[in-house]
């Protein structure tokens, strides 16, 4: 085996693999947690309603209304979303394993892992975009419920308070869309990066040569 083939990957590829590893772990864990919550939907709702929210989060009745709105918005999409979260967590697992093997191949060729990482990252980007579209609907409904609740609080009776309350639905949707754009966009960029010719050539140059019979 030549020295160039036994050497490590370039720093840029290692960094991209590390980002893939961390992002896949966080996204996959989040999807798996929500899938568990959706599977035990009504029990999860009751637990959330029984939580003692700190005073800085606002009026207790308002928080209960927001929680009920959250679960009410999720209920019609519960089953398809449960499937989506399950598939998303599996796709993230593929990204995680491929990225880990890119970083520590343990003697295995990295080229196969590069291909799997590129494809799986693009799949995650698509699934996370669908997830984000659903979350935007939920965020809007929660924002409307919060805005209605804020309008009845003394601190929001003046003009400034009214404007703040009115902006809550738009801010909630914007935050949801922004989060989706960042996460799904990063996965899409990683997928395209690992499918690029430059990364393929760098990986092939450092993979072990096939043993001759």
From TrEMBL:
Alphabetically ordered keywords of this record: Membrane, Transmembrane, Transmembrane helix
Chain segments annotated as transmembrane: 82-100, 120-139, 171-190
Record has Transmembrane as a keyword: yes
Name of the protein: DUF2975 domain-containing protein
Species the sequence originates in: Pyxidicoccus parkwayensis
């Amino acid at each position: 085996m030549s020295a160039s083939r036994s050497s490590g990957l370039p720093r840029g590829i290692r960094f991209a693999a590390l980002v893939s590893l961390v992002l896949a772990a966080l996204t996959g864990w989040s999807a798996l947690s929500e899938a568990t919550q959706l599977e035990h939907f009504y029990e999860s709702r009751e637990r959330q309603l029984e939580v003692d929210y700190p005073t800085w989060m606002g009026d207790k009745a308002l928080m209960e209304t927001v929680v009920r709105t959250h679960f009410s918005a999720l209920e019609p999409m519960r089953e398809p979303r449960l499937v989506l979260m399950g598939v998303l967590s599996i796709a993230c697992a593929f990204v995680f394993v491929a990225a880990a093997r890119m970083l520590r191949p343990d003697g295995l060729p990295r080229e196969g892992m590069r291909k799997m990482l590129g494809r799986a990252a693009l799949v995650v980007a698509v699934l996370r975009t669908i997830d984000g579209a659903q979350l935007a609907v939920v965020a809007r409904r929660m924002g409307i419920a919060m805005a209605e609740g804020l309008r009845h609080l003394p601190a929001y009776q003046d003009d400034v308070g009214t404007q703040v309350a009115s902006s809550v639905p738009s801010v909630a949707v914007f935050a949801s869309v922004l989060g989706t754009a960042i996460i799904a966009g990063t996965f899409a960029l990683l997928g395209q990066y690992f499918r690029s010719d430059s990364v393929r050539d760098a990986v092939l140059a450092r993979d072990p040569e096939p043993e001759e019979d």
